Amino acid sequence: MLQEQAALLGIELVVLDETNCPVRQINQNEKHVAGSFRDPEKIRELARRCDVLTVEIEHINTDVLEEIATTGVEIGGKMKKVPVHPSWETLRLIQDKYLQKEHFQRAGIPVAPQMVVNAGESMSNSLQEASNAFGLPFMLKARKESYDGRGNFKITSPEDFETAVNTMGKFSLYAEKFLPFRKELAVMVIRTESEEGETKSLYAYPTVETIHEDSVCTKVFYPPRHVSNEICEAAKDVASNVVRTLKGRGVFAVEMFLLENDELVVNEVAPRPHNSGHFTIESVPSMSQYKAQLYSILDIIPSSIKLQPRVSSAMMINILGGAQEDSHHSLVDLTYSIYRDSMDIFLHLYGKSSKPGRKIGHITVTSHAPDSNLEELAAPLIKEADRIRQ
Ligand code: ADP
Ligand code: MG
């Protein structure tokens, strides 16, 4: 999706990923670096071939990114420094969810109360302490390498302690108060930065509602359902305040909980294009999240930028791989056959091999009609996506 935008400006994109990775369907650049993004030497090789580096996954070796940005990478006997956006410092901070939230808390941003959980012998005692402090249920989370709910464990009773020790004991962990939220909201924010690293501008897309099932994002609604404009604007302010504390250029997704008393609490940040911004591809075509990612890292965000959607409503449905490799074909067929007067349907398949629960594509539906109910209009798609996921 980033390559699509780069092509429109004739910007050369070099990718580090496996030989036949999805982007190769539309990127035949012979400078492609085939390998793992976890391999420091491959990352150095990518840096030698680029003027600016960005990432689309935050679980990456930040030591090598720091080295590339500050000392440089050796090429033809000379050292070449390559800017990394967002900053390796931001990536390093965000990689550790506990430290990430400590940082936000220090900046006066509301986050759930949390505490470190000891490893080894004293883990059970630590869980007891968390239970005393936060009550039950509480969340036990891996500090690092977690995504799509992997690394999260909801502790509902002391009987769960033993399973938690057995299944989570090998990770570096923290506990977090369980927040019985009314909604989950998210805001994508674009951050531009001066050469000196100061925030130049922050542009927030409209607030969306995200639905997580089994800790995985399954749907996104623009606008959020049954949430006032006031709260949507407040969420944009919170998200902008969050991103102001980070370093580097790019788009950032800020995930939040909306509590029963309308309080907003920040859950976590993704320093990259994100599920909650996929709706912008069709809804904000003048500046989709991918275009924004490209334009911000190149520092060419136009001053005419406008992020107001061109549609009255949009919904994104994730396509998650099912039990069989072709389980999602029925859903794909349905998107071709379904017709609704007041709804447009956009299918995205990433060209990834299908595995159970893996995000392999998404469907965005939009409407220009001011009062249409996309959830109702797209009900057959939602039902089929849910069926595959079971
Ligand atoms: P991931 O990195 O996998 O996205 P998150 O920490 O965002 O992990 O958790 C995934 C989902 O689990 C959240 O979107 C939310 O639905 C639920 N969740 C996480 N933390 C809490 C919490 N403290 N209270 C209530 N629900 C939570
Ligand atoms: Mg999350």
Summarize this structure as a short list of keywords or feature phrases.
binds adenosine-5'-diphosphate, 25% strand, binds magnesium ion, alpha+beta, four-stranded antiparallel sheet, nine-stranded antiparallel sheet, 390 residues
Question: If you had to describe this structure to a student in words, what would you say it looks like?
Answer:
With 390 residues, the protein is an alpha+beta fold. It contains 13 helices and 17 strands. Helix 11 runs antiparallel to helix 13. The longest helix is centred in the middle third of the chain and has 16 residues, at 229-244. It starts with a helix and ends with a helix. The model has no long low-confidence stretch (mean pLDDT 97). Magnesium ion is lined by residues 255, 267-268.
Topology:
Layout: H1 2-8, E1 16-17, E2 33-34, H2 40-48, H3 62-70, E3 73-75, E4 78-80, H4 88-95, H5 97-106, E5 114-117, H6 123-134, E6 138-142, E7 152-155, H7 160-168, E8 173-177, E9 183-193, E10 199-204, E11 208-213, E12 216-222, H8 229-244, E13 250-258, E14 264-270, H9 280-283, H10 289-297, E15 313-320, H11 329-337, E16 344-349, E17 359-367, H12 374-377, H13 379-389
Helix pairs in contact: 3-4, 11-13
Magnesium ion (MG) is lined by residues 255, 267-268.
- Give the termini separation: 28 Å
- Kindly state the mean pLDDT as a whole number? 97
Low-confidence parts: none
Largest sheet, in brief, is: 9 strands, antiparallel
Radius of gyration: 21 Å
The H/E string reads: HEEHHEEHHEHEEHEEEEEHEEHHEHEEHH
User: What would you call the shape?
Assistant: globular
**Fraction in beta strands:** 15-25%
How many helical stretches?
13
Task: Classify the helix fraction into a percent range.
Answer: 25-40%
Strand tally: 17
Q: Hetero groups bound? A: adenosine-5'-diphosphate, magnesium ion
Structural class based on helices, strands and sheet pairing:
alpha+beta
